[in-house]
Amino acid sequence: MAKCIVAILLLAIVAGPALAQNPKGANNPLVDEYARKKKEAEEIDKQYNAVRKNVDVQTTPTRVDPWQNMRGTDDAKAKR
């Protein structure tokens, strides 16, 4: 019984400094970084959805012909 108590005390003495490195109130830096990235992603999603609501589908222009100024006024196939 005495050996068991001495072994438990030695383990407690050895484990004490290891537990002291991370007090219960402190957060892990990786957890903080994950929470920060998640918050940033949510903020970006909110901004994206706000912009998407403001854009009206019908106000977007239809297809534009970039060559319209290069063509002549009459492009009939019969003139060829």
Describe the protein.
The protein is an all-alpha fold and 80 residues long. It has a domain at 27-55. The protein has helices spanning 2-20, 29-54. The relative contact order is 0.04. The model has no long low-confidence stretch (mean pLDDT 79).
Largest sheet: none
Number of strands: 0
Order of helices and strands: HH
Roughly how much helix do the residues carry, as a percent range?
55-70%
Strand content: under 5%
Unreliable segments of 5+ consecutive residues: none
Give the N-terminus to C-terminus distance in angstroms: 111 Å
Could you say which overall geometry the principal axes of the C-alpha atoms support? Answer: rod-shaped
Q: Give the count of helical stretches.
A: 2
Task: Please identify the structural class as seen in this structure.
Answer: mainly alpha
Cα Rg: 35 Å
How confident overall, as mean pLDDT?
Answer: 79
Give a quick rundown of the structure.
This protein is mainly α and 80 residues long.
Keywords:
single chain, mainly alpha, 2 helices, 80 residues
Secondary structure elements and their pairing?
Blueprint lengths: L1 H19 L8 H26 L26
